[in-house]
Amino acid sequence: VSDKYAEPLNGVDRYAVVGNPVEHSKSPLIHHAFALQTGQDIEYSRVLAPLDGFAMTVQSMRETGFKGANVTVPFKLEAFHLANHLSERAHDAGAVNTLLFNTESIVGDNTDGVGLIRDIEQNLGISFEQKKVLLIGAGGAAEGVLHPVLEQHPQLLVIANRSLDKALKMVKKVEDQGEYRFVSVNAYAFDDLKGQQFDIVINATSVGLTDTKLPLPRDIFAEGALAYDMMYGRETPFMDFARRHGAAKVSDGMGMLVEQAAESFFRWRNIRPLTAPVRAQLRA
Ligand code: ATR
Fold it and tell me: Are 48 and 20 in contact (CB under 8 A)?
């Protein structure tokens, strides 16, 4: 972990990804590639915050001249509470993955949702409009992408989760807000999915890094369906299941990772980097 807050660099704006664990984060590689591509002079490191010391870590970073940070597991909720100002999408997500440090305040944003949408719509070329969408999971990752998915006007959004009560709570929140009346939003337990088909199936559970198989019916994928796992770095059991049971396109979350990073970079530097070369670099 290159924890550099003791040595300010003259004239170079500093950013970091803060998490625990953080040593495997690809964010420094991605942001350095963006910086090189756009001619921005920045330094981007990894900062390991103690599990009980996120606020203190952010405080030290501000004092030593950091301009912003990405926030990863398990601090996205804490970052949400720490920020003095929230973007609308951070407010909707109930979580923050991007911090901007001003002299007076900490601004919290969330670029995860837009990252997912850009990867699916622009990179994979699949529109959400009028599609039947299944979102699997009802934890932080699922909540973070819920509003951005609804904003794309799908015909139907089903949230399926092992613990049905959490999916029901997400649906109730959407209904109470009353913003998305044009989409039918429902919560299901895995067993209730039998006989239904979806055009876009997104795995937002945390099972991707284990060998746990989600109990999905085999005929869940409609003709031409996309199966998208928000995890990256390996072929997950969900991706394998999707390939064997008729998904036309299967993707991991590497593109989402690069897109959310690009949006954070844009928030900090006001320049939008090209993501395709960086995706290619990561895949290689
Ligand atoms: P994250 O921030 O990654 O979303 P989280 O908030 O802990 O992490 O949520 C984890 C998600 O993965 C939840 O939807 C969880 O289901 P429960 O709400 O029922 O716990 C889901 N999950 C984790 N392990 C799972 C498993 N073995 N089978 C099915 N779902 C699982």
Answer: yes
Active site residue 76: yes
- Identify the three-state secondary structure at position 137: coil
Strand ranges for the chain from DSSP E: 13-19, 42-48, 66-71, 85-86, 98-101, 106-109, 132-136, 156-160, 184-188, 198-203, 221-229, 249-251
193-210 residue pLDDT tens: 999 999 999 999 999 888
Instruction: Give the torsion sign (CA, 58, 64, 68, 72).
Output: negative
Catalytic residue among 4, 67, 76, 131: 76
The pTM is what?
0.94
What's at 157, amino acid-wise?
L
Residue 118's Cβ-count burial label (10 Å; 0-12, 13-18, 19+) is buried
